[in-house]
Amino acid sequence: MDDDTLCSIGELARRTGSTVKTIRFYSDRGLIEPAERSPAGYRRYDTEAVARVELVRTLRDLGLDLDTIRKVVAREVSLADVTASHAEALDVQIRALRLRRAVLTAVSGRNSTPADLELAHRLAKLSGTERRRLVDDFLAAVFDGLHGHPAFVGVMRSMTPELPHDPSPEQIVAWVRLAELFRDPDFCSSMHGMAHGMAADQAPDDAFGLTRTLAEAVRTRVTPALAAGVDPASTEAGAVVDGLAAHCARVLGEGSGTSAPRSRLLSRLESMNVPRRDRYQELLAVVNGWPPPERLAPVLDWALAALRAH
């Protein structure tokens, strides 16, 4: 081999931006073999050594261990196979880091106790089967006794969170907070009452019951009044109440001149006005990747105040 094509360890270090100590270490580990040694025993490297140093440094920066790098350089394993397997390993690490970040986010800024942190961590780590069991137990309690109701399947589906296989940190946080609601007996009881109220008001010509159509009617009629700052006790608010009562009468098939629709409307809106219901819908939308829902609580509060005033 032409001596002019070889370089010393110091020259190789200068060409690659490495230190002599690093090059010597790589050589001692069999990652960069010298082309030959001088009569005095000094290592001499050929031009391919520059490319090898760059490869070794890149693989080290990407987190590969020295033994794996040696096998790649020696062509005992292919670069494609090694990088693919390490990419998969990184995916696992990334998911674990996302989980840790989500748990920390879920408990931060909430005056959380160590027990809260432990619970959030446990809820975030549940398997798909365990998550499904938790959701099923919650929905079974909410819809207890209503499995034969014609709206049961559709409403259950609309309330079911489905955490994706590779969730974002925001989805994990939302799941943890949903799971906390599932475990809250007060929330479960209030949702149970709302579900049974909906079933009791099932209208014969409306397969989804009064609640769903009434919620949309309240949102449509009350939102403009709320935005305009109309006082619930005002005459103008009374006209909104009259419209809602007439709508309720039509759905129930009752005469609008009776007091029944107004009384039924008040009772129905009270059962619909469940604390944290909007929060449940917001968290559900994040977990399932749905558009953010419109909040119902403000229009329900206004409608209830107007009904009681009129």
Alpha-beta classification: mainly alpha
Average pLDDT, all residues:
85
Helix content percent band = 55-70%
Largest sheet: 3 strands, antiparallel
Write the H/E string, N to C. Answer: EHHEEHHHHHHHHHHHHH
Distance between the termini: 103 Å
Question: Which regions are unreliable across 5 or more consecutive residues at pLDDT < 50?
Answer: 203-208
In percent, how much strand structure appears in the residues? under 5%
Number of strands: 3
How would you portray this structure in words?
The protein is mostly helical. The chain has a 3-stranded antiparallel beta sheet. α5 packs across α6, α11 runs antiparallel to α12 and α12 packs across α15. Helices cover 66% and strands 2% of the residues.
Write the layout of secondary structure elements.
Elements: E1 7-8, H1 9-16, H2 20-28, E2 36-37, E3 43-45, H3 48-61, H4 66-73, H5 79-107, H6 114-124, H7 128-142, H8 152-158, H9 169-182, H10 185-200, H11 209-227, H12 235-252, H13 260-272, H14 277-288, H15 297-309
Antiparallel strand pairs: 1-3, 2-3
Helix pairs in contact: 1-2, 5-6, 5-9, 6-9, 9-14, 11-12, 11-15, 12-13, 12-15, 13-15
Short description:
By secondary structure, the protein is mainly alpha-helical. The protein has helices spanning 9-16, 20-28, 48-61, 66-73, 79-107, 114-124, 128-142, 152-158, 169-182, 185-200, 209-227, 235-252, 260-272, 277-288, 297-309, and strands at 7-8, 36-37, 43-45.
